[in-house]
Amino acid sequence: MTEAPVKMRSRHVFKSFGATRVLKDVSVEVRDGEIVALIGPSGAGKSTFLRCVNNLELIDSGSVEVDGELIGYRRVGDHLQPLGDREASRQRARIGMVFQHFNLFRHLTAVQNVAYGPRQVLRLDRATAERRAAELLGRMGLAGREHHYPRQLSGGQQQRVAIARALAMDPSMILLDEPTSALDPELRVEVAGVIRDLARQECTMLMATHDIPLVEDIADRIVFMVDGTIVEEGPAEQVLNAPAHERTRAFLARMTSRNDAPA
Ligand SMILES: Nc1ncnc2c1ncn2[C@@H]1O[C@H](COP(=O)(O)OP(=O)(O)OP(=O)(O)O)[C@@H](O)[C@H]1O
């Protein structure tokens, strides 16, 4: 079987915030249609890495490419120059991002939240953008909630609006940052179901998560990161069942026992 083409490739990414070195030589590949789970303890740098892929943060050195295009910088001769605002937001618009705390506009309804990007960035007219938004909300099981404001929706429903919002831009890939971790168990199941459906539709996803059952369910590959460095990566089944590294084993044991603990 030939391997799918590479969708996202990071090479030797370093990122610091002041004196805090957060990413230290992170090289990751995500292939077209692949679901990659980025796992690891709190503070490992998972969110920061996703933010770098989406150009919400600029890396200090190394490179990130999506569909072969350099993210955050342009080459000028031998040098790299940070992109201007316009180019940076064009890149951001091509990569969907779903956040832990949904990040919906509070003053916009569900359908307006989903239609916002297509109207502002893709320049769709209002009727077309809202019709497409309503269709996507329907696919997320939110028919009838189109005109609700975020405060009138449960956390699970808000996260499904956020996923619809990401899909509305026809993204090249979707980054999910702890999409289920702000949710109660039953709402988590609801959102996990939507993410599982997307995985079946061969969306390309890179997801930072502590939700090991969701990882077991949908991930093709796992990247395990500790303290800004990748400790282990491989096919999900292999990493979950026979982790090669002691730190991966200890982390998974800790996470699994926490998930199995009575509520
Ligand atoms: N904007 C920032 N300014 C300063 N430090 C930051 C900033 N963003 C992240 N950090 C630091 O970077 C480190 C990694 O944070 P990050 O949120 O990427 O980790 P994480 O693996 O996603 O953790 P969690 O699982 O808790 O979400 C932490 O020490 C954090 O305090």
From TrEMBL:
Organism encoding this protein: Nonomuraea monospora
Main location: membrane
UniProt entry tagged with the keyword Cytoplasm: no
A Pfam short name: ABC_tran
ABC transporter domain span: 8-252
Record membrane topology: Peripheral membrane protein
Compartments it resides in: Cell membrane
InterPro entries reported for this sequence: AAA+_ATPase, ABC_ATPase_HisP-typ, ABC_transporter-like_ATP-bd, ABC_transporter-like_CS, MetN_ABC_transporter-like, P-loop_NTPase
Record-given protein name: Amino acid ABC transporter ATP-binding protein
GO MF: ATP binding
Keywords: ATP-binding, Cell membrane, Membrane, Nucleotide-binding, Transport
